[in-house]
Amino acid sequence: xxxxxxxxxxxxxxxxxxxxxxxxxxxxxxxxxxxxxxxxxxxxxxxxxxxxxxxxxxxxxxxxxxxxxxxxxxxxxxxxx
Length: 81
Hints:
Layout: H1 12-16, H2 33-79
């Protein structure tokens, strides 16, 4: 089974981990409701951390750009004297 870029609907474990022993060999593992909820929360935390990182980088880049623009504007105003 190939791993795709999109997340499977039923959960990663249920999609990629078939049962290896017993009468249900090859059928997907069925997770309990709390396990699916825990897996979804972990995935949401990863997404939130990524968004937080990107937001901080964007704020830092905009702040540096604003200070540079302010510097060049003041230099332009000095040149008008």
